[in-house]
Amino acid sequence: MTGAVWAPEIALGSSGLTGRRLADAWEDIHPLRSEWMGWAATAGEGVEVVWRDATLYGSGQPLPATLRVADVDTAARLLQDGWPDRLDEARTRAARLAADFPGHADPAGMLRATRELPAVDFDLVVRAARWFADPHPAGLTARQVPVEGMGTKWLDRRASVVRRLAGLESLDLEPGRPSRVHLTYLDPDHLDSGGRRHDVATVGDVHTVAYRPSVVLISENRDTAQQFPRVAGGIAIEGDGNGPGAVPQLPWVRACPDVVYWGDMDVKGLEILAAFRGTGLRARSMFMDLTSYRRWERFGVDHDHDGARLGPRPVREVDLEPGERELYEALCSPDWTGHRRIEQERIPLADAAAVLRLGRA
What we know:
Helix content is about 40%, strand content about 15%. By secondary structure, it is an alpha/beta fold.
């Protein structure tokens, strides 16, 4: 393997078995030694067990000391469990990388970076990297790169390994279409004066909302955001259901003195809340602690939006307030006997609006 170092001798740990220690353990050592003898006789070419003489009650007793394996092919044969095929595949990939990128600075590192990729993905990484490494038109977006079989989302996931293989500091792609955030105006004075109810903010564009909000509600449910009752100075934003998205990039959101996040009471919703905080947006939550859960527990379900059954999850280090963390850890726990999710939209909007107006959850 390119850049690999083979260490063919493996100490078997018998060097400390001498004198009284060997005598005390002999009943266990003897059958193990017999197994090693049988295995060494059938291990085949390229394998050698080096024995050492140990003294037990005045007589010599050979013990296995070192295992010598001639090469990586022999090691793969001994291990089995798919290793021979894995080794063949690695050699094929190493040859492909060497042929397509003969002057690469780190061929062994690229082989490690691509070894777990499915065959189709590996081929696509190589072809994409070759396209980027060769002279090509500038000013393209990811959607415009003419590599067969490559989609925009795939390139988003594999951009780092493609860039490294191409030997580039950057893929130098133009941004795709700008992100947009849908919002609903909640202020009664604005609405009563004939102002529009719904609007769209485009990231990077010159955009001024109808008024500077005193409270911004980020709602993971679109219907909830669009139908939210009137709140003085309020603007409701539709989240994307998976994370902060473009919302933290909007200057008027970052400037708002009171940003409120309201999602489902489940592990995913609480992790999205923490992700918003991870962008520097100090959002407070609404109906996302254990007290709120107890209040609305009758609306609980045990399946996600796709119908998959919810179960315990590993607890992650996330930025949550004490009450939120209490709920998060409970919902993650295998000992939790309650429902694992309360959908945001089951909570009456009148109750939510009253809490938002009061500034507390």
